[in-house]
# Entry
Amino acid sequence: MVIALAALAVLSLLMLVHELGHFLVAKAIGLRVDEFALGYPPRLLTLARADGTDYTLNLIPFGAYVRLPDEEDPLASLASRSRKERATLLLAGPLLNLLLSIALFAVCFATGWPEAHDLAVGVNNVLPGSVAQAVGFQDDDLILAADGQEVTSVLDLIVYARSVNGAVRTVTLRRDGRRLTLRLPTGGPWFTKTESRGVEIRNDAGWVELVSYPLPQAIGRATQEALACVTSLLLLPIDILRGLIPVDMVRPVGPVGIAQLTGRAARETLATGWWFPVLQLTATLSGALAATNLLPLPGFDGGRLLFVVIEALRGRRINPKRESLVHLVGLILMLMLILIVTYHDIAWPLRTTGR
# Structure
C-alpha cells in the first residue's frame, strides 16, 4: 500500500508541476482559466473560486489539469493570442518540470550524492592465527596502495610486490569508510601471489561514498544532470539511427513501469531511511517528462509549438479547428500506445530488485 501511494504521489507531483507552469503563464498573460483541478473527474468539491477560476478537487486522485476556454471562443481562447504568448504558455509546463528536476537533483547533491569507486583490491579472507591477522588485516578490507603507490587490481599489486621482491613495507586500506595504514613486517614476501602470509586478495572490489557539495556547486551539478536527462531523451532517436544505442536496449515505459521503478525506490528509502532513491528518481522522471512534452508530436506541447513555428514560417494561422483535430487524433494514437506499453509493463515487469 505504501509503495502504491509513493508511486501515485510521484506521478501526481510531476503532472501537478507541469500544469502549474501552464496555469501561471495563463494568468500572467491575462488568459481566462476556467478551472485548475487536482485529480480527474468526477468533481468532488470546489475548493475556491477566484478571478473566474474554479480550484477543484476531483475523485480520481491522480495528476492535475488546467481547463482553458474552448477553441471555438474567438476572443477568450488560447488560439486568439499572439504566437509569442502561445509559445510561452506551451513552454511553461516543460520548463517547470525542468526546474523541479534541477531542484531535486540539487537536494541530492547537497545532502549526499553516492559516488562509486570500483578500482581497489579486496581482502577476501584472512586466515586465523596468520601473520596477516597479527598485522591487522581484516576480511573485506580494501587495499588502495602499496608503499604509497596506488593499486587498482590484483595484477597491479602483484607486479609491484614482485618488483620489490615481496618487500612491501606499508599498505593503505579503506575500512568502514576510513583510511588507515598498516606497516608490514619483514621475513617473507607479501602479495607476490593471490595468497600470501595468511591474506587472500581478489579483484572486483570497491565502495560507494556519499559526497556532499556546497549549495552553489550542488545547483551547478544539478543543472548539468537535469539537462542531460532532457537532451539524452531528445537525442535518443538520432543515437538509435546512428547505431550508438542498440534498438533492443530501448524500452518505452508507461505509468505501470514508472510505478514499478518508483516502488523499487520507495522500498530502498523505507529500508535505509535515505531519501536519495526517491528524490533521484523523481528528478530524473521530471526531466524526462519535460523532454517528452517537447517532442514535436500531435497532442504534446512540442506538437503545438510546431504549429506555432509553421504559422510563423508561412505568415498566417492554421485553422484552429484543423489543428485541434490533428491533436485529437494524436492523443488517441498516444493513448493506444500507452495501453500497449502498459500491457508490456504488466506482462514483462521491470526488474524491481537491486539498483
